[in-house]
C-alpha cells in the first residue's frame, strides 16, 4: 500500500471571459515504499506542479505492479522447481533455473518506469548466468544475443507468453 | 398454716423467708426480660429512625445539588447548542470542500438517477484546463447516456475495449487521452498567443492537435530565412511529438551552422513542450542582444 500526503495551492484568476486556475505550489510527501522508481517520479511531479498527472500515473504504476506480482506468482506456482523469486513476488526480478542443469540461470528483470511525461511503461531485460565451460562451447554466441532476442520475443508474444516460452525452453522434458 | 411449736415458729419465719426468696427470685425472672425487650425494642426503633434520618438527609442533599447544577447549566446549555450547530455546519463545509477537492485528482463523479456522472478534469503542467463529463447508465450492459467528449477522441474504441469489463481502466484510459489532447492544445494555443512574433506564417493544426505545421524564425525580427517545422504526435496519449521534421529553406542550406541549428531544434522539439522551446529561443535571442550591446 502506498500512502502519501498532498499539499497544494491554486490561484484562480477571474477575468471577463473565463476563470483560469493554476496550481502554484505542490508538495507531496510519500511514505517510503519498496518501489525505488517512485521517489524520482514524485519529485518530478512536484517540480511540474502536475497534480493530475501524479494521480493518473500513480494509478497506472500500481496497476502494473499488481500485474507483475500476479504474473510472477503464477509462474512460481506453475513451475515451482524451476522458478525462484529471490526478492519476493513484489520485486522486479524472477530467476529461472534448469532443474537438471543448476548452473544455468536466466534472470528476468522487469522494471516499471514512469517517463518524463508521466507515462508508465514496463521494461523487461534478460540476464544470463552460465558455467564458464558452457560459455566456451557457445560457438553461435547464443548467450550474447539472448537479451536482444528476448526483447524481440516480447514484441512478438507479449509478456506472459514470452516468459512462459522461456521457462519451458529451459525445462525441456519436465512434466508439469 | 399452723403455729404449733418452735419448729413451726422457726418454721413460720423460715417459711416467710422462703416465700420472700421465692418471690424475689420470681420477680427477678419476671422483671429482667421485659426490660431487655423494651430496651432492645427502643434501640431498634432508634436505629431505624436514625437510618431514616440519614436517608432523608442524603436525598435532600442530592436534590439541592441537582438544583444547583441545573441553574448553573441553564446558560451553558444554550451556548452548547450553538457551538454544536457550528460544528455541524463546519463539518458540512469540510465535506463540500473534500468533494470539490476530488476534482483535482482528475476523476470525480456524482450519483444520478440513472447511474453515475463522471467528470474528467484535464491539466497541463499545473494549468487546469477544460473538464469533460461522461454520463453512465447503470444497466446490463453498461452504457453511456451522453457525454461531452470531443468527436476526435476515440471514445467508441476505448469503451468497446474496456467499458463492460473494467470500468476503472476505461475511465483512466479516457483520462489519459483527454489530458494529452488538452496538453497539446494548450501548447499550440500558447505558441499562437505568446510567440506570434516568431511565426512567419499561421500555425496549421488539426482538431486533435496532433499534427502541427508552422514556419518560424529564431529571432522575432530576424532577416534570416525561416525554418519549417512539422510535428506529428502519433501516440495520442502523449504531449510530446513522435515525429519531428525541421527543414531550412534558405539559400545557404548546406552550411554547417544551419545544419547544426536545424538538428538542435529537432532535438528541442522532441524533448520539450512547444512553448518552452520558443521561450528558450527568446532567451537565447536576449543573450545574443546583450552580447551585441556589451
Task: Write up what this structure looks like.
The complex is a heterodimer of chains A (176) and B (294). Chain A is an alpha+beta fold and 176 residues long. Chain A contains five helices and six strands. In chain A, helix 4 runs antiparallel to helix 5. Among the domains of chain B are: 107-181; 184-290. Chain B is built from five helices and eight strands; from the N terminus they run αββββααββββαα. In chain B, a hairpin with a 3-residue loop joins strand 1 (107-111) and strand 2 (115-124). The longest helix of chain B is centred in the N-terminal third of the chain and has 97 residues, at 6-102. The mean pLDDT of chain B is 83. Classes of the chains: A alpha+beta (176), B alpha+beta (294). Chains A and B meet through strand 2 and helix 2 of A and strand 2 and helix 3 of B. Strand 2 of chain A pairs antiparallel with strand 3 of chain B. Chain A: It holds the Pfam family CENP-P. Chain A: This is Centromere protein P isoform X3. Chain A: InterPro entries: CENP-P. Chain B: Keywords: Centromere, Chromosome, Coiled coil, Nucleus.
Concise account of the structure shown:
The complex is a heterodimer of chains A (176) and B (294). With 176 residues, chain A is an alpha+beta fold. In chain A, 42% of the residues lie in helices and 28% in strands.
Q: What Rg of chain B do the Cα atoms give? A: 53 Å
Question: Helical percent range of chain A?
Answer: 40-55%
Largest sheet: number of strands, sense, barrel closure of chain B: 4 strands, antiparallel
Order of neighbouring strands in the sheet with most strands of chain A: 3-4-5-6
Question: What is the end-to-end distance of chain B?
Answer: 169 Å
Low-pLDDT segments, ≥5 res of chain A: none
Shape of chain B: rod-shaped
Overall pLDDT of chain B: 83
